[in-house]
């Protein structure tokens, strides 16, 4: 259940942080569009990373001081109880079924296009190759990119995720057309747009339960083209005007067969008349935008990132809090639910505290200098204890009048164990039991205490449980 709970937490936090970032992106989008369409696309790629990279999960794991204990940061011990197994099992199965379906659909589409792109011929025309190298050098691109002819496509496109190739329909192109085509497709390579398209497909599959994630791919398609147009026009400002740039694209589009399929999963020169019309409108807004607005554009972008990261931090803690409450309520070894007052508490003074063959201490300690365990916080443990061995926790400070609550589940349940506390003077108080049991120890003296599990049986036991003081 440990791995499942952590996967659930990662998905939950990614859903929170990604959705919050996406919401802020939609708020900032009109403001960013007035400055530069490339900013809209850049911030959208930031949103993609918030969905994919578990920033929020890492923040929670490194700073959360609740049920997710630091001393077991890589090995939490969540044990579901009652009907919760069934509820989350059914929910997990439903989520997994839709995930498999989405992955299968994407793989079928991807394989279909890979097969279409397989039938390609390296470009040997010297004029085409020379123009390609000229534009590539103009854009300061040094990575290796291949160019091929393909009879299976109708529009120039970039394929690949890490190793890019440019495919051209089998046609005759003028020098001006080659310049526009290569500049547009090479800018896609420079922006790594095919990679972010694959990322958006992954987001749609993993976060298929959320409403916003399914729109990531269409938005990536649209804004990557707009950002590409702006960068290409800026790069070609000494060669062609923005108007002529789009006239060339329209001329190429009119030569495309009417029955062509526009839903490419790769980056293409054009997809549809409607999308091209929007790209032209965005370009007009960019051209009309005030020059010298770079500072305001930077401020807006910085404000978006800071706002998103701040809310990501808050959303991560909120998601972890939900997860924390959920599992504390469902924890089978929680002290309150397993406390058995009828167990007899035994006191052993330090002078007689020798009823063990060896003593071991949990590593890492709570803190070598200042224990971080606070009142009401729950620490979990999962120890393998050998026969005759006392396994102790790290020290933590408890004040007089408080109590330490310990609960443990011993496996195999036939072995007898002690659970108890060691006070600042090494005096011991414990209760004896088998299987699952717990106890509350009253504290009469302020100082640093340890909790322990001692194996009184003849076989190794696994002791998992929790403790806290209040």
UniProtKB/TrEMBL annotation:
Q: Residue limits of the Peptidase M56 domain? A: 92-282
For this protein, the record's InterPro entries field holds: Beta-lactam_resp_regulator, Peptidase_M56
**Classification lineage:** Bacteria, Bacillati, Bacillota, Clostridia, Lachnospirales
- Protein name according to UniProt: Signal transduction protein
User: Known PANTHER family for this protein?
Assistant: POSSIBLE SENSOR-TRANSDUCER PROTEIN BLAR, SLR0241 PROTEIN
Pfam family of this protein, just one?
Peptidase_M56
Query: Per the record's keyword annotation, is Lipid metabolism included, yes or no?
Result: no
- Which keywords belong to this entry? Membrane, Transmembrane, Transmembrane helix
Biological source species: Roseburia intestinalis
Q: Per the UniProt record, which residue ranges are transmembrane? A: 6-27, 39-60, 86-104, 293-315
């Amino acid at each position: 259940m440990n791995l499942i709970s952590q996967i659930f937490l990662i998905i939950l936090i990614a859903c929170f942080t990604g959705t919050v970032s996406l919401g802020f992106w939609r708020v900032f989008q009109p403001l960013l569009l007035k400055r530069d369409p490339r900013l809209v696309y850049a911030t959208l790629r930031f949103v993609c990373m918030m969905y994919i990279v578990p920033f929020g999960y890492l923040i929670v794991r490194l700073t959360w001081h609740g049920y997710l204990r630091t001393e077991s940061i890589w090995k939490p011990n969540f044990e579901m109880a009652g009907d919760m197994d069934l509820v989350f099992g059914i929910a997990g199965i439903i989520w997994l079924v839709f995930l498999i379906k989405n992955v299968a659909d994407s793989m079928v589409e991807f394989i279909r296009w890979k097969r279409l792109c397989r039938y390609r011929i390296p470009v040997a025309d010297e004029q085409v190759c020379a123009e390609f190298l000229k534009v590539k050098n103009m854009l300061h691109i040094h990575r290796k990119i291949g160019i091929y002819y393909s009879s299976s496509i109708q529009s120039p496109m970039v394929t690949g995720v890490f190793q890019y190739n440019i495919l051209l329909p089998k046609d005759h192109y003028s020098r001006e057309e080659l310049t526009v085509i290569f500049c547009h497709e090479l800018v896609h390579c420079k922006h790594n747009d095919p990679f972010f398209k694959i990322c958006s497909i992954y987001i749609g599959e993993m976060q298929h339960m959320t409403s916003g994630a399914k729109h990531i791919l269409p938005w990536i398609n649209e804004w990557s083209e707009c950002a590409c147009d702006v960068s290409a026009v800026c790069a070609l400002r000494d060669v062609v005007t923005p108007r002529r740039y789009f006239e060339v694209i329209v001329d190429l589009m009119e030569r495309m067969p009417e029955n062509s399929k526009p839903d490419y999963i790769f980056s293409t020169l054009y997809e549809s008349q409607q999308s091209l019309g929007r790209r032209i409108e965005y370009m007009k807004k960019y051209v009309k935008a005030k020059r010298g607005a770079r500072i305001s554009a930077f401020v807006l972008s910085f404000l978006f990132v800071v706002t998103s990261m701040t809310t990501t931090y808050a959303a991560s803690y909120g998601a972890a809090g939900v997860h924390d409450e959920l599992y504390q309520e469902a924890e089978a070894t929680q002290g309150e639910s397993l406390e058995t007052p009828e167990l007899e508490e035994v006191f052993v003074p330090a002078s007689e505290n020798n009823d063990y063959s060896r003593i071991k201490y949990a590593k890492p300690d709570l803190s070598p200098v200042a224990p971080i365990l606070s009142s009401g916080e729950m620490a979990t443990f999962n120890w393998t204890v050998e026969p005759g061995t006392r396994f102790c926790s790290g020290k933590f400070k408890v004040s007089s009048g408080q109590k330490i609550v310990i609960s443990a589940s011993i496996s195999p349940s036939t072995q007898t164990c002690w659970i108890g506390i060691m006070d600042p003077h090494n005096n011991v108080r414990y209760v004896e039991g088998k299987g699952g049991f717990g106890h509350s120890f009253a504290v009469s003296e302020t100082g640093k205490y340890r909790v322990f599990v001692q194996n009184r049986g003849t076989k190794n036991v696994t002791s998992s449980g929790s403790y806290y003081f209040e």
